[in-house]
Design brief:
mainly alpha, 7 helices, globular
């Protein structure tokens, strides 16, 4: 077992911070240029996911930023329906609020005009095209192109190695910091 001294650990941290400073600085600039500067009401768990998604982006954990962004929106919508329909309530599709997936929550919110058609389209695109490929990677099979709906793990590996995932994460985080506060404010953060 390797045993590092306290000073060696501190030096490793300092070296890492120095190497990653420029990347963190540019990612923080992105966040600050798109996010609202005023506070907004939000349910506690959804807000925690929102903060963690932003932190993942800042730290350069791009896949995690994508997944946490989806979780923030999902919990925001789920919380809205817990308040509107009761903790053990159901959506109009018949599914219990806490058993409904992100797809169901988006559709319910669109149907009830809690979110607009355009917002629903953005959230479905987040779910289908950005989040799902990373959490539902498939074995290598019939590869038609590197950007297929359900890419295999080799396509995803290419996206990570080529930097495409960074661009996807930036798109998602911009959506997060612009749309999340707006939707959250609609029900006062309850």
């Amino acid at each position: 077992m390797n045993s590092y001294t306290e000073n060696e650990i501190k030096q490793l941290m300092a070296d890492s911070s120095k190497r990653s400073y420029d990347g963190r600085l540019s990612r923080l600039r992105v966040l600050l240029s798109y996010q609202a500067q005023s506070a907004f009401p939000s349910p506690a768990l959804a807000l925690e996911y929102y903060e963690e998604a932003r932190l993942c982006w800042y730290a350069g954990a791009f896949i995690s930023a994508i997944v946490m962004t989806q979780l923030a929106f999902e919990e925001l919508l789920r919380n809205h329906y817990r308040v509107a329909n009761g903790v053990s309530g159901s959506l109009s599709c018949g599914k219990k609020v806490d058993e409904a997936g992100f797809f169901d929550l988006i559709n319910e919110a669109k149907k009830e005009e809690y979110i607009s058609q355009d917002e629903a389209a953005l959230l479905h695109a987040l779910r289908q095209k950005l989040r799902n490929p990373y959490v539902h990677a498939k074995d290598v099979g019939k590869i038609e192109n590197a950007m297929m709906e359900k890419p295999d793990f080799l396509s995803l590996t290419w996206k990570v190695a080529s930097g495409v995932v960074k661009d996807e994460a930036m798109k998602v985080v911009i959506l997060l910091v612009q749309l999340f506060p707006e939707i959250s404010s609609r029900h006062g953060g309850l």
